[in-house]
Specification:
Number of helices: 0
Distance between the termini: 8 Å
Strand content: over 45%
Order of helices and strands: EEEEEE
Shape: elongated
Length: about 80
């Protein structure tokens, strides 16, 4: 998918426990909140089925220096 069709958004903040990120499903438009295991590194790629429409989304996550989690989603 070309980069201009990807959706980039602020996803959340990393904490000691309970880190979460959110993304907008490219198929149905729902905002989905997902847990993030920050022990897996500063840059992660996940494939998640949307719990609303069941379409697969590839979610790229990266942690900013200030603790903010950013996301880029493609379906």
């Amino acid at each position: 998918m070309p980069p201009d069709e990807d959706v980039e958004q602020s996803a959340g903040r990393a904490g000691v426990t309970g880190a979460e990120a959110s993304y907008i499903c490219d198929s149905c438009g729902e905002e989905i909140v997902i847990p993030v295991d920050i022990s897996e590194g500063d840059s992660q790629t996940l494939i998640e089925d949307c719990p609303v429409c069941c379409r697969a989304n590839t979610i790229h996550l990266w942690m900013q220096d200030d603790g903010e989690i950013r996301s880029n989603v493609e379906s």
